[in-house]
Amino acid sequence: MTDRTNTRKQGVIRLREKGRVAVRGKVPAGVMTAPQMAAVARIAEEFGNGKVGLTTRLNVEIPGIDRRDADAVVERLQEAGIVPGSTGATLRSVVVCKGTVCRHGYCDTQGLARAIEERYGGCELPRKLKITVTGCPNNCARAQLNDIGIAGRRFPAFGAGDCNGCGACEVVCREGAVRIVDGEALHSGEHCVGCGDCITVCPAGAISVATEGLRFYIGGRSGRVLRVGVEAEGLVPEGEGLLVVGRLLEYFRENARPGERFGEMMDRVGTEEVFAAAGMKPRNRP
To answer: pTM for the complete prediction?
Structure first.
């Protein structure tokens, strides 16, 4: 599925002041080059009120533009390599934490976000759809509150080497999933959230990686109606994340009614069916 919207009609937003608009430019993974930032500043000074806003989905917005100049602003943004958009019944800009460079991140959040944008960004859908990618259980990008939420996870395997009972793993574990008993580290899978911190801090190399990958949350949303996404069972290999996203988008486009959000569609057709279409199962919670 590679359908796109007409970008010249995207990203132009009416403001309170009559005849004035803002033009929104998409910033994949929230990362701009210095020349792009300079270009945005010049456009804001020439066509707007000299100000640039940052949206909650990591895009730039230039306000105070005469609506008659909107096309010229769009053209200038495109010349700087910035595509206007993230409005209407489309796949909105992917929100992403800085997991790619963060010491807590366990997946290439920015790389996955860019891959999703390049393949599906701006595709037309029955209603807007939002995706977020977060690199660890700290969940800075709030994976559960988007139509499709993706979170990096790394779970430990104990016994890879000789534990010296130093207790570093117990100290770093916020969930109390690791305890030192009689000089040995004991791990509780029930309480482990997959942050991988115990693996990182172990000075003896006694903790290795058991499993790692992406955890999906489906059907969440924020705004006027708050809904927590349904967690998928198991982990998806990082290299297959884009494939799963594509399956979910295709199912949504083919099965959702006009104006229906992903979670509403899932309530109507059944959670199990939606997860099956993506090659996953919903996780059963006690």
So the answer is: 0.85
CATH architecture, domain defined by 154-211: 2-Layer Sandwich (3.30)
**Segment 235-245, tens digit of pLDDT:** 999 999 999 99
Fold of 95-149+212-277: Sulfite Reductase Hemoprotein; domain 1 (3.30.413)
The tens digit of pLDDT for each residue in 95-135 reads 999 999 998 998 999 999 999 989 998 889 999 999 999 99
Q: What is the 3-state secondary structure (H, E, C) of the chain?
A: CCCCCCHHHCCEEECCCCCEEEEEECCHHHCCCHHHHHHHHHHHHHHCCCCCEECCCCCEEEEEEEHHHHHHHHHHHHHCCCCECCCCCEECCCEECCCCCCCCCCCCHHHHHHHHHHHHCCCECCCCECEEEECCCCCCCCHHHCCEEEEEEEEEEECCCCCCCCCHHHHHCCCCCEEEECCEEEECCCCCCCCCHHHHHCCCCCEEEEEEEEEEEECCECCCCCECCEEECCCECHHHHHHHHHHHHHHHHHHCCCCCCHHHHHHHHCHHHHHHHCCCCECCCC
